[in-house]
Amino acid sequence: MAARTLYDKLWDSHIVKTEEDGTSLLYIDRHLVHEVTSPQAFEGLRLAGRKLWRVESVLATPDHNVPTTDRSQGISDPISRLQVETLDQNCLDFAITEFGMDDQRQGIVHVISPEQGATLPGMTLVCGDSHTSTHGAFGALAFGIGTSEVEHVLATQCLIQKKSKNMQIRVEGRAPAGVTAKDIILAIIGEIGTAGGTGYAVEFAGSAIQSLSMEGRMSVCNMAIEAGARAGMVAVDDITIDYIKGRPYAPSEDQWPQAVLAWRDLVSDEGAFFDKVVNLDASQIQPQVTWGTSPEMVVSINDRVPDPAEESDAVKAEGMQAALDYMGLTAGTPMSKIKVDKVFIGSCTNSRIEDLRAAALIAKGQKVAANVKQALVVPGSGLVKAQAEAEGLHEIFIEAGFEWREPGCSMCLAMNADRLEPGERCASTSNRNFQGRQGQGGRTHLVSPAMAAAAAIHGHFTQV
Amino acid sequence: MQAFTTLKGIVAPMDRSNVDTDAIIPKQFLKSIKRSGFGPNLFDEWRYLDHGEPGMDNSQRQLNPDFVLNQARYQGASILVARKNFGCGSSREHAPWALEDYGFRAIIAPSFADIFFNNCFKNGILPIVLDETVVEEIFQAVFAHEGYELEIDLQAQTITRPVGSNIGFEVDSFRKYCLLNGLDDIGLTLQKVDDIRAYESRRKVEAPWLFGA
Ligand code: SF4
Predict the structure, then answer these.
(1) B114 close to A (CB below 8 A)
(2) Quick check: CB of A108 below 6 Å from ligand 1?
(3) Ligand 1 center to A434 CA (angstroms)
(4) A413-432 mean pLDDT
(5) Contact B148, B141 (CB under 8 A)
(6) pLDDT > 70 fraction of chain A, expressed in percent and rounded
């Protein structure tokens, strides 16, 4: 057989049927569901009198709307509450496994599924959420879908898809100290742009990617969508397999050897064809900070806010100026001089145990700067929270003046009570710096957990 | 789903690239558990001067006179012409729901974000990818002529302009078929029950751990 990419293999093994025009019916192994993009899908099923095709493939949890403060009070916003209750009811009616708001396993969908071993190599995994690309870190084909497709998967276990093109992004070499997976993916987006991956399934490869932990790989794949790629993935190796072993949804002991054998093949073959290859040198990457309203508007901490006057493309220059106006920044300002009002450590990009450890390392024995009004640490799941507390990380944060919260999406998109006020500037470990993303008029700078913690302590961005 | 055959309508310009789904429909409106009623909140943060929340009476809110869709000349527009990477960001189908509810049935741009592009077809909206220079021509024509209209024929895959030659466009044949007939693709997939069952039996042998609890 001809040499195939990892994506080719994942694709081939899930084809139910291919039509003459090249569209395929693709089988879906795992379906994650949250409260925001599912109510209309369940309503659609009810109206058509349709059942779930394979209920065991579905795992649900509320994350976007849940409060990150005391859960015993319930959700105060009646509209948010109704949405979460609707999910609870739908899971009950359709007999779906749900980690409800009071379950310790509750958390951000993209954190809980890997944590449970519900994300496995070789799977196709979907969720009504664009950051589903996260799960590709396991050598899986994982991508976000819309609500109509959520309904389609619930009813048929399949999706109608056309194959994407193959792209490989190779990051070779050793990243300097202080450079994390988040900096690598931001540097990639800075290089190829937010539409650079459109139409492609991207495999992240190279020694700098292989040396990342699963947490790091998830941070990278998480933001594949910010580079325009619906799916990002990393080949399977020992790090992948070791991570999965012993997790609740992992293969049973008698199936384990067969599973591992199959997973070992989940790498791109030597000589496999990629429609596009992008190369980056990890040793040249510095800690990254975004300055604008799109993730591609990013520079390294040693740089200055770019000047639109130096941009030759007029449309681009205009966009840069609009971003600077929104962000309240002046061209030429050193990034390290930018002061922040709030700090958010959390989101499906950076709320796993390693992220919290990295932030705690910086916060230890320090105090949040006086100009920082609020510094939030929001673990990705109840289990991450418990693990962090077992390691005493919460005490480090609380000592330093951070707020230690309950798990959820929180200020990543501010659908719950955690948000920026107009004009407030935030160092955020999340993945989107769009206008108003963290609250109307809010100004977001995307950074790594270490950089966010350092910004909290110093009151401005700084070398980490 | 509403079928799409031909459409003749006023074109409104959205003259910026990377218009994201947070801009198309801000997140506070995603709390709705319904599929309809998002039109009044399309581009909410750009369109109104105050901050919008679900449940507000939008007719009482102050419109931003500078926002393009608030201008008299674009009222009743059903075609949106946009720049690169339109619809990037989240997978929220609320974005096409809001566009459709507002009255847009077709969007023309040099490129679209993948998930948004896909979501349009599921909601009776035709997204059309055209060359950047052609999109630029349309922008200029829209700016120059008040009430500028285009006529889109999906069957023929053509756009007719008041002046100038017709523009052809590409569309995936399966998507075209569904859109022309207003077909719900769940129904179509369920006609392949036997294929799905056969795949599952085969796969249960190859990868039984995928079919555990
Ligand atoms: S943490 Fe943010 S990006 Fe991730 S799923 Fe939640 S809202 Fe989406």
Answers:
(1) yes
(2) yes
(3) 13
(4) 95
(5) yes
(6) 100
A329 contact partners, CB below 8 Å, separation of at least 6: A291, A305, A338
Tell me the average pLDDT of chain A: 97
pTM of the model: 0.94
Task: Tell if the CB–CB gap between B209 and A152 is shorter than 8 Å.
Answer: no
Concatenating the DSSP letter of every residue in A15-65 gives EEEE-TTSEEEEE-SEEEE-TTTSHHHHHHHHHHTPPPS-GGGEEE---SS
Q: Residue A135 in contact with residue A113, Cβ under 8 Å?
A: yes
DSSP-assigned beta bridge partners for residue B63: B48
Q: What is the pLDDT of residues A305-363, one digit of tens each?
A: 999 999 998 888 999 999 999 999 999 999 999 999 999 999 999 999 999 999 999 99
- Interface predicted TM-score (ipTM): 0.94
Which residue's entry shows tokens 């497709």? A149
* Rounded-to-integer distance, Cα B106 and Cα B152, Å: 9
Give the whole-angstrom CA distance, residue A286 versus residue A392: 30
Of B20, B54, B93, the CB nearest to A147: B93
Give A102-124 pLDDT, tens digit per residue.
Answer: 999 999 999 999 999 999 999 99
pLDDT of residue B185: 87
Is the CB of residue A149 less than 8 Å from the CB of residue B118?
Answer: yes
Select B6-182's CATH number: 3.40.50.2300, 3.30.360.10, 3.20.19.10, 3.60.21.10. Answer: 3.20.19.10
Q: CA-to-CA distance for A256 and A273, rounded, in angstroms?
A: 31
Per-residue pLDDT averaged across B51-72, rounded? Answer: 95
Residues 170-199 of B with CB under 8 A from A: 172-174, 185-186, 188-190, 192, 195-196, 199
* Token pair for B185: 């693709």
CB contact under 8 A, B210 and A29: yes
Q: How many interchain CB pairs under 8 A, A with B? A: 187
The residues spanned by each domain of chain B are: 6-182, 183-213
Residue B195: is its pLDDT beyond 80? yes
Contacts of B83 in chain A (CB under 8 A): 315
Chain A contact for B136 (CB, 8 A cutoff): no
**All residues at 6 or more sequence positions from B64 whose CB lies less than 8 Å from its CB, including other chains:** B46, B47, B48, B49, B70
| Per-residue pLDDT at B212 exceeds 90 | no
